[in-house]
UniProtKB/TrEMBL annotation:
The keyword Protein biosynthesis does not apply. Keywords: Oxidoreductase. Pfam families: adh_short. It comes from Streptomyces polygonati. Transmembrane segments: none annotated. SUPFAM superfamilies: NAD(P)-binding Rossmann-fold domains. This is SDR family NAD(P)-dependent oxidoreductase. Belongs to the short-chain dehydrogenases/reductases (SDR) family. InterPro entries: NAD(P)-bd_dom_sf (IPR036291), SDR_fam (IPR002347).
Length: 187
């Protein structure tokens, strides 16, 4: 394994990274793969792969780095979530982000005693290799990082990083038809 490399789906690699980065005070917990096949067409093995990378791997990172953060005064764990953490689509990907969001909220409670700030960072389309093929407006990763660090410094528990995620979050308090027009009366 090269210095600084990490395979989030390999617990030995995660443990080695935590040992190597024993002086960490901030951990950016970001892992993700996507699959947009419809729920009735995706195989269960494909769904398992999504959950392995998008849910179980970041939990393994949190478990491995929690003692490191505690040893260094508490620090911060920043879980990179998605605007889709709050929204369903007819694919399995959003459910993985919802599950990771729920784990983030649980980790926040569990790690409060060691004074670790757990931040859930919700973002949509960011110009990364994961969505390189999508023809949509994308946020600059540097802007996203700046928003996250501003939230960290402010002591925020949730950071809504972009306009798309802010729009989704604000629509949650409105009628369901705002998010899902197919449920409007008369449809």
């Amino acid at each position: 394994m090269a210095p600084g490399s990490l395979d989030v789906n390999d617990t030995a690699s995660v443990a080695a990274a935590a040992e190597t980065a024993h002086d960490s005070t901030v951990v950016l917990n970001n892992a993700g793969i996507t699959n947009t096949k419809p729920l009735l067409e995706i195989t269960l093995d494909e769904v398992r792969a999504l959950y392995e990378t998008n849910v179980f791997a970041p939990l393994a990172v949190a478990q491995a780095f929690a003692p490191v953060l505690e040893a260094n005064g508490g620090g911060a764990l920043v879980d990179i979530l998605s605007g889709l953490s709050w929204l369903a689509t007819p694919s399995a990907y959003p459910s993985t982000k919802s599950a990771f969001w729920s784990l983030t909220n649980g980790l926040r409670i569990e790690l409060a005693g060691q004074k670790t700030q757990v931040v859930g960072a919700h973002l949509a389309f960011t110009d990364t290799p994961l969505i390189a093929e999508l023809d949509v407006p994308k946020a600059d990763p540097r802007d996203i990082v700046a928003v996250i660090y501003d939230g960290l410094e402010a002591g925020d528990l949730e950071v809504i990083c972009d306009d798309i995620s802010r729009g989704i979050k604000s629509a949650l308090s409105g009628p369901i038809e705002a998010l899902y027009p197919q449920f409007a009366p008369g449809n």
